[in-house]
Amino acid sequence: MKILYVSSEITPFAKTGGLADVAQALPEALTKLGHDVRTVMPKYLRIAEQHLAMEPVAAFTVQMHNGLQGAGLLHAKNGSVSTYFIENEAYFNREGLYGQGDGDYPDNLDRFLFFCKAALECCKAMDFLPDVIHCNDWQTAVLPAILKSTYGAYRQDPFFQPLPKLVYTIHNISYQGRFPEDHWPILSLPRTYYSHDFEFYGQINLTKSAIHLSDAVTTVSETYAREIRTTDLGFGLQDVLQRQKEHLFGILNGVDYREWRPETDPHTYGIHYSADNLSGKSRIKTRLQREYGLPERGDAPLIGMVTRLVEQKGIDLITECAEQILELDTQMIVLGSGDPRYHNYFEWLRRSYPDRVGIYIGYNNELAHKIEAGADIFLMPSLFEPCGLNQIYSLRYGTLPVVRLTGGLADTIQDGVNGFTFFDFEPSFFLDAAKRAIDTYRSRPKMWEQMMATAMGQDYSWEKSAEKYLSVYNTVLGKTG
User: Fold this and answer.
1) What residues have CB less than 8 Å from 443, skipping those under 6 apart?
2) At 318, is the pLDDT very low, low, confident or very high (cuts 50, 70, 90)?
3) How many other C-beta atoms are found inside a 10 Å radius of the C-beta of residue 67?
4) Smallest Cα–Cα separation from 472: which of 225, 175, 230?
5) In what order do the strands lie in the sheet with 203-205?
6) pLDDT value at residue 157
7) Rounded to an integer, what distance in angstroms lies between the CA atom of residue 416 and that of residue 431?
8) CB 29 within 8 A of CB 254
């Protein structure tokens, strides 16, 4: 099968979130299963600054509303996958991917419309007619409309015959690509598309159009697929998704166990462990306690957090309950960044409990691995969580998660089996789950060991997820075998 995977960010070239990791790992897993997968993304300034060995492929023009715009196509390998970069200095030679500071670039509609059109034109440059084009999030959401109108209507372009099938993945539906209606001329699409596919409370909504015009829509866990079509976690698009429910699939993201593996992790002080020999875990905990000036105590549960410090991640529950949790003779190490008010809170918490709290404001991949390996309990009480990866990392490291039953957290964590759960987004319910985890660690060691063994034995590898995506591709292609 020939697959074009279109994403606005791909690890390791450019990343702002989990989308980039998926856009690297899923194409690689599909390639290993024997399929011809090409990934395509913009060539941002930060990519140019990496001085990668890139092969020029072609130069072409893209018809935009204000005339022809030039595009360059370059190629590099990303593991076993061929990655193609769309070059245009005016659109992509900027410090940020989507904006700077707290604001988006005002011409983002132009920028990612250009990217979508160029992604289709690059198929011609590569002489690559995909069976499936897989689009991701709002930055690629206009591509289905372009393909079906510009290339498909009245068989205008013989290269795209038959038209590739379209799969659209929602990684986080709270980001939809909404723009004022008066931007409609930028898209150069027939007005009928606006009223039927794009219009959303008087605005252009790119994600709505992709839901309407794709052959299948996927999202990153089964529970999240249900939540976004039946609750207000659809952020206004729940009715649209409910009407398309037969074409909506929830597929849990996988994780890369080459990177997240306690037996070989290069970031854990040179200390390793496994489900058969856990002695290294306590040694990593001791080193982590020492690094953050905490008493080196095995009997005190070490609670870890690696998160964006934003409302979505349930940080308000943490701030309500952190002192009560610490008063249960526990320790806590928090790694993250986000809203300054949360930065201020955790800095205050560290000053108030210097022998119990360690804080790192920012991002530190090595520390993230140390926390996953050295902590006993991992907190992840998200308001909503499309998939979540840290709870899956925690399972492999035997660090039992405390999570709210939403999205991928509900699909991966079972209370009393491999972690501790609660549902109502209320401090008292979160605190009860945390207390149960702490009590089990202290008072029921046999149960704790059994839960660790269960957690460490679970497999959320990308190979399983890739097989499910292939099933969706075969469904839209009309293949049943």
Assistant:
1) none
2) very high
3) 8
4) 225
5) 178-180, 203-205, 199-200
6) 78
7) 16
8) yes
Do 2-254+463-476 and 279-459 show the same overall fold? yes
Residue 29 — very low, low, confident or very high, per pLDDT cuts 50/70/90?
A: very high
Both ends of the chain: CA-CA distance in Å?
Answer: 14
Q: Which CATH superfamily is domain 279-459 in?
A: Glycogen Phosphorylase B; (3.40.50.2000)
State the CATH architecture for 2-254+463-476: 3-Layer(aba) Sandwich (3.40)
What confidence category does residue 147 fall into, taking pLDDT thresholds of 50, 70 and 90?
Answer: very high
Query: Domain map of the chain by residue range?
Result: 2-254+463-476, 279-459
Residue 95 and residue 100: Cα distance in Å, rounded? 7
* Residue 153 confidence (pLDDT): 65
**Residue 8 near residue 19 (C-beta atoms within 8 A):** yes
DSSP codes, 86-106: EE-HHHH-SSSSSEETTEE-T
Note the pLDDT tens digit of each residue in 356-415: 999 999 989 899 999 999 999 999 999 999 999 999 999 999 999 999 999 999 999 999
Q: For residue 129, which of 159, 171, 96 has the smallest C-alpha distance?
A: 159
Q: pTM of the prediction?
A: 0.91
Rounded CA gap, 89 and 76, in Å?
19
- Which residue from 56, 81, 77, 80 is spatially nearest to 5, judged by alpha carbons? 81
Q: Which two tokens stand for residue 357?
A: 């709290």
How far is CA 346 from each of CA 99, 242, 324, 353, rounded to the nearest angstrom? 27, 40, 14, 10
Q: Which residues contact 468 (CB under 8 A, 6 or more apart)?
A: 249, 251
pLDDT tens digits for 225-269? 999 999 999 999 999 999 999 999 999 999 989 889 999 999 999
Asked if residue 197 has pLDDT above 70, the reply is: yes
Tokens representing residue 470 in the block = 């292939």
Place of tokens 């072409």: 60
Q: What are the strands of the beta sheet with 132-136, ordered from one edge?
A: 55-64, 67-78, 81-87, 36-42, 2-6, 132-136, 165-170, 216-219, 248-250
pLDDT of residue 30: 97
Measured between alpha carbons, how far is 395 from 210 in angstroms, rounded to an integer?
Answer: 34
Instruction: Kindly report the number of other CB atoms within 10 A of residue 201's CB atom.
Output: 8
So what's the pLDDT on residue 480? 67
Nearest to 258 by CA among 413, 393, 77: 393
Residue 168 pLDDT exceeds 70: yes
Section 188-192 average pLDDT: 92
Q: Residue 236 is inside which H or E element, if any?
A: none
